[in-house]
Amino acid sequence: LIQIRTGHIPLNSYLFRIKKSGTRRCNACWGTNRSTITETVIHYLFECQTYAAERYDMDRALGRHSRDLQGILASLDRIKELLKFVGRTARFKTTLGDAIGDVSHLETEE
């Protein structure tokens, strides 16, 4: 969560800044439509079409807070939905491994 809040997360905009990536662009968007959009936290969470299906589930669960990162981070229930989204996308599997872990336990109704 701290990485999401600060932007110090292994997305290309940050990796480029610390010289661990040769590009800032979103590889998923580049691969599908040659878009040169920068892969930021906001792009990953709210804009990247690669994760539209996962985002749809998050949007439904979060309602009016679905595109408000500060609002999401202000509530434990909304944070759980955010973590489900991150887990479902598997975007950080190669860099963080199982640091996010299995999110299936978050899928159950409480």
Automatic annotation (TrEMBL):
Protein's name in the database: Reverse transcriptase zinc-binding domain-containing protein
Recorded superkingdom: Eukaryota
